[in-house]
Design goal:
Layout (H helix, E strand, L loop, with lengths): L3 H7 L2 E6 L5 H10 L3 E4 L19 E6 L2 H7 L7 H10 L1 H6 L2 E4 L5 H14 L22
Parallel strand pairs: 1-2, 1-3, 3-4
Helix pairs in contact: 2-6
Protein name: NadR/Ttd14 AAA domain-containing protein
InterPro entries: P-loop_NTPase
Length: about 140
């Protein structure tokens, strides 16, 4: 019997990048619960343009976007600014250009984003486990998306 970690290694890798408060951790959690080998990449905090490619090249790269209002709605505990958002988008430009799927999550619920991504993965025949994969430590905020 394969352990969950070995099982995940044999599944196609899905990486999720995006601006702060776009729902990366929430989406990864939902995809792993559905059996997909998804991992977040905290590229928005890095000046390494191709960080998303390191530690395993993804079969699918998903880019989540958000606007300033959406960030403030999801994380009212943080002082967001247009300058910080622009800086994050600049850091994410390489990932944005290479993304297989881009979603602006500003006006979607977490469930709607999950459903859009699952439909995309299924349409592209991305294999998944028949059982949930273990959750990963959360990288972001409150878990509200």
């Amino acid at each position: 019997m394969l352990t969950a970690n070995l099982m995940a290694e044999k599944l196609p890798l899905i990486k999720v990048v995006g601006v702060s408060a776009s729902g990366k951790s929430t989406l990864v959690e939902a995809l792993r619960a559905a059996g997909w080998n998804a991992r977040p990449v905290s590229q928005e905090h890095s000046d390494v343009p191709d960080l998303w490619k390191q530690f395993g090249f993804p079969r699918i790269l998903i880019y989540l976007d958000n606007d300033l209002e959406g960030q403030r709605r999801r994380r009212p505990d943080v002082s967001w600014s247009a300058e910080n958002l622009a800086r994050e988008k600049q850091r994410l430009q390489h990932a944005y250009e290479h993304a297989d799927l881009r979603i602006n999550t500003a006006h979607f619920t977490a469930a709607q984003v999950r459903d859009l991504v699952i439909a995309f993965l299924e349409a592209n025949h991305v294999r998944r486990s028949s059982t949930p994969l273990p959750p990963l430590p959360r990288t972001g905020g409150s878990g509200k998306a």
